[in-house]
C-alpha cells in the first residue's frame, strides 16, 4: 500500500472506474502567480497533477485515464558500498523504458486515440509519478508492522552506518515534470509565463515530497540532450525524493563543518567580486565557479539564505523565471546549436542542514567545443581527480558574450 497525505491510502493498481471516481473529485487549489493546481490519479493509482498557467486557454475539466494498466512494480532494493558508504539502488525495471520515441508515440504528450500516453488531457505543465522509478512507490509508513521482512531504512543514523552486505528497500518517490505538451524542446524554449508555472510546480512538489514519510532530500533536475543520455526528446525534467542524504550533500555538510556556517554567503560575496559573474539580478547571481570542473559549468545562487524552492518568495520566483531562461538561451548561443547539459537544483535536506545549506542551480555540460565533448576517463572516473581544460574566467567571458547576443526574455514573448 502507498500512503500520501492528500489522497490517503491507495491500492497499487486501480481500475478505470475507480480512476474516474478519483478524477471526478480532483483536488483544485490556487498557487502563486495565478497558477492553478489540479490533482488527480492515473489508472494504476499513480498521482498526476496539472499546473495551469495564469490565463490558461484550457478548461477546468480533465479526461479520465481509462487505460488498462498492470499493477505497479515492487519497490526496488538498494545495497551499500562498504568502501564509500554510498547506497546503490538496483531498479531493474528501468532497463525496459522507452528510448527516443517518435512524436506519435511520445509517452509524455497528451493522450490521443492512437497514443495511450501517460497524460490523459491537454495540459500546460503536468507532474506525475514515474512508472519505472528508482525510488518507491512504497514510502516508509507503508511497511506497517513488517519492517524486518521489507527492510526499510531506519532513519539517518541507520543509513550513515557502514557494514558488509547491507541492504534496504528503496523507499521514496520519482516524478516526471512535463514543461510543455509539445514533443520537442527544453526548459529554455519555454515562455517566461510557462517557466514561472514550472517554478511554482517545483516549489509545490518540494513541499509535498518533503512531507512524505521516509524522505530525506528532494532533487529537481533536467537532463537535456542525447549526449547526456536523454531517452525522451519531450521538454521535461524529473524530481527525485531520496530516502537518504545524497553523497554530494554529505560532502558539502563536511565542508561547512570544516569552514564555517556562513560558507554560502562567503562564496557569493567572493564570486560577485570576480570576473566570473555571467548574469545578475536583484535576487539571483549566476557565475562560473572558481574551481569549475566541466568545460561549461554555471552556478546560480539566491542572495538571501533559502534552503529550497518552497521557501522562495514570490519576488524571487518572479525574477528567476526570465533570468534562468536568459542563461539557458545564452548557453545554446555558445555554439549555434542546442547544448547538452544537466541542470541540477541542489536543495537542503529535509531534516538536517537547512540553516546552512543554500539552494542553488548547478548547470554542467561536457561540451568543450562545437564538435567536441569531454569524456570522463581514468583519473576523473576512478579517482575523482579532475583535470580542467578551460579556465573559469575564460569560460565566463565567452558565456557573457553569448548571453549578450540573445534578447532578454520578457513576459510578452510567445515562444
From TrEMBL:
The protein's matches in Gene3D superfamilies, at most eight in alphabetical order, are given as: HIT-like (3.30.428.10)
Q: Which Enzyme Commission number(s) are listed?
A: 2.7.7.12
The lineage's top-level taxon is Bacteria
Q: What class of enzyme is it?
A: transferase
Catalyzed reactions per annotation: alpha-D-galactose 1-phosphate + UDP-alpha-D-glucose = alpha-D-glucose 1-phosphate + UDP-alpha-D-galactose
Domain Galactose-1-phosphate uridyl transferase C-terminal residues, every copy: 273-401
Keyword Nucleotidyltransferase assigned to the entry: answer is yes
UniProt GO molecular function: nucleotidyltransferase activity
Q: In which pathway does it act?
A: Carbohydrate metabolism; galactose metabolism
Q: Which key words tag this protein in UniProt?
A: Carbohydrate metabolism, Galactose metabolism, Metal-binding, Nucleotidyltransferase, Transferase, Zinc
The coenzyme or cofactor needed here is: Zn(2+)
Q: Which Pfam families match?
A: GalP_UDP_tr_C, GalP_UDP_transf
Respond yes or no to whether keyword Cytoplasm is given for this record. Answer: no
InterPro entries cross-referenced by the UniProt entry: GalP_UDPtransf1, GalP_UDPtransf1_His-AS, GalP_Utransf_C, GalP_Utransf_N, HIT-like_sf
Per UniProt, residues of the Galactose-1-phosphate uridyl transferase N-terminal domain are 101-245
Family per similarity comment: Belongs to the galactose-1-phosphate uridylyltransferase type 1 family.
Q: What is this protein called?
A: Galactose-1-phosphate uridylyltransferase
The organism of origin for this protein:
Microbacterium panaciterrae
